[in-house]
Specification:
single chain, 87 residues, 4 helices, 0% strand
Amino acid sequence: MLKQERFSALQIVNREEAEKLYQLTVAQARKRFLNYAKLSGDYDSFLDKESKNKKFYKDTEIIQSELVSKMNPKKDDIDEILKKLDI
């Protein structure tokens, strides 16, 4: 999701709001997925798999935070340019 233009554009303009939007989007997607899992009867098996794969989720969070931190220097450079241009 971080590669989507809406996140990357907002990341350039407002880093904090981009992170909030990203977290909200992930939470909403997870909620929808869990609801679909309940409707299909796969909810319990999903929770079992999820508990077994917690290490994977922790690794994924680390990768996501690294991606966000790589985006931050670009935003700082753009902020400096905009300040020089008085925008």
